[in-house]
Amino acid sequence: MAAYHAARTLVDAGLAAQVTLLEKMPRPARKVMITGKGRCNFTNVKDWNEFSAHVRSKANFVKSAFYNLPSQAVVDWFEGFGMPTVVERGDRAFPASHHASDVVDTLVAACHSLGVKIVTEAEVASIEPGFTVTLTDGREWKCARLIVATGGLSYPTTGSTGDGLRWAEALGHRIVPTFPSLTALVPRGYKLTEDKDLHIDRSTPLSELGQSLCGVQLKNIQLSLSIEGTETDSEFGDIDFTDGGLEGPVGFQLSRKAVKALVNGSRVSLVLDLKPGVDLTELTVRVKELWAEIEKDPRSRHVREKERCRILLGKLMPWDLIPGFTATHPEIITLERRGRADTKVWVNLVSIAKALKAWQFEIVGYVGYERAVVTAGGVSTDDFVAKTMESRVVPGLYLCGEVLDIDADTGGYNLQLAFSTGALAGLNAAKSLPSVD
Ligand SMILES: Cc1cc2nc3c(=O)[nH]c(=O)nc-3n(C[C@H](O)[C@H](O)[C@H](O)COP(=O)(O)OP(=O)(O)OC[C@H]3O[C@@H](n4cnc5c(N)ncnc54)[C@H](O)[C@@H]3O)c2cc1C
């Protein structure tokens, strides 16, 4: 988007678009290919007031960029290049084909239409003010204006390995400490780990508990985040238990604050409310009614207490959640020894209701950049001009996208920020050339 807008500005000024895009991977925009589970939620069409509430860092800094290329303009831009789009629940925009490759193809075609040269397998090793750009294979490029759009540190296999952060720092820019965001949170006992490191690699094997929960998807739940025992946030929606830990839209939503708190040494826990629509008193009544129905049912006559409990839980939660729920809530069943061979099993209905309303997960770590959707932190926006994206430290240098200290929630916001800041950087990098004035 940055290359396109630089070229657009030059062409509109009657000049040839001498814009070259250096991409280290064999093909450009590998990360975009995996966005939105391969469907690419390329923007969110909320207006700025609502959109900005989803920007987790430096919303004020990106405001000018957003107004220069708002999300509706991004939708129109893709439509204008022949890519039909659809807007789904939550104002999230996708290519109508639901193929992320259409977004990549459109970006590439748009660049080619203006004569942008895209050079792949061109890994930049270093940049010198002036500018000289040296590739790892020794090739050199000279340019009057330089835009760095190298992304953050997450999903390094797509090419985003944080190189731009290192160059910016070497050139005298401040770096806001980075950490993974929109990532899985790991509950205590979920993985076979000694809990020494906060970063628990996604490939770390699951424990028995992790195995019993992995694959469970929960809809319409309430998830609350507590830091040092105080609830800070609460979100309604869906979560997934995966091989990484607890994630999904609501898990992701809380992950930024949770990871930051863990990194700062705070105690972090999540409280899962499986029945947010009813309060504890109503739920307790409901649980007791269901239990009475099961006891009355003639088919229950020869069923043991523990199995009856399972039948009860099956009426209150997805079946695949029951093993994890019972393993983490031993208090729901009490054994009363009445004699040598006589043990009475009690099903504690009040405890079940309480556990349904407040399932506690102590969080011991998080999945790192290997599978985090975005990088929080980055090159400090204080060293850049919001209206142009130009560096205050190195004139002629522009930064855009995730390499900067900007990040947002899931829902198309991150790509929109990359597109908006990219477009503004491209426009101003070209506009500032003496030949354009
Ligand atoms: C699994 C996943 C799903 C996501 N889904 C969505 C979604 O649906 N909607 C949304 O809005 N956001 C989503 N995101 C976030 C979004 O993809 C990023 O925020 C966005 O791609 C950032 O754009 P960028 O241009 O700043 O950086 P990137 O997309 O990371 O691009 C940086 C590019 O720079 C290249 N590069 C890096 N270093 C060098 C070098 N030294 N030399 C040459 N080239 C280099 C890289 O190869 C890469 O192509 C998702 C992210 C992930 C990981």
Number of domains: 3
Task: Report the CATH topology name of the largest domain.
Answer: FAD/NAD(P)-binding domain
Q: What is the β-strand count? A: 20
Low-pLDDT windows of residues:
none
Ligand set? flavin-adenine dinucleotide
Give a written overview of the molecule.
The protein has 437 residues and is an alpha+beta fold. It folds into three domains: 2-180 and 372-436, FAD/NAD(P)-binding domain (3-Layer(bba) Sandwich); 185-274 and 359-366, no CATH class; 280-353, no CATH class. It has 14 helices and 20 strands. It has helices at residues 2-12, 30-34, 48-52, 59-68, 71-80, 100-113, 163-170, 208-213, 248-263, 280-296, 305-314, 322-328, 349-357, 413-431, and strands spanning 20-22, 43-44, 85-88, 92-95, 117-119, 124-128, 132-135, 140-142, 146-148, 175-181, 185-187, 217-227, 230-241, 246-247, 268-273, 333-339, 342-347, 359-366, 374-379, 397-399. It has a six-stranded antiparallel sheet. A three-stranded antiparallel sheet has the order 2-4-3. A three-stranded antiparallel sheet has the order 6-7-8, with no helix packed on it. The longest helix is centred in the last third of the chain and has 19 residues, at 413-431. The chain is elongated. It binds flavin-adenine dinucleotide. Flavin-adenine dinucleotide binds next to helix 2 and helix 14.
Write the layout of secondary structure elements.
Layout: H1 2-12, E1 20-22, H2 30-34, E2 43-44, H3 48-52, H4 59-68, H5 71-80, E3 85-88, E4 92-95, H6 100-113, E5 117-119, E6 124-128, E7 132-135, E8 140-142, E9 146-148, H7 163-170, E10 175-181, E11 185-187, H8 208-213, E12 217-227, E13 230-241, E14 246-247, H9 248-263, E15 268-273, H10 280-296, H11 305-314, H12 322-328, E16 333-339, E17 342-347, H13 349-357, E18 359-366, E19 374-379, E20 397-399, H14 413-431
Parallel strand pairs: 1-5, 9-20
Antiparallel strand pairs: 2-4, 3-4, 6-7, 7-8, 10-19, 11-18, 12-13, 12-15, 13-14, 15-18, 16-17
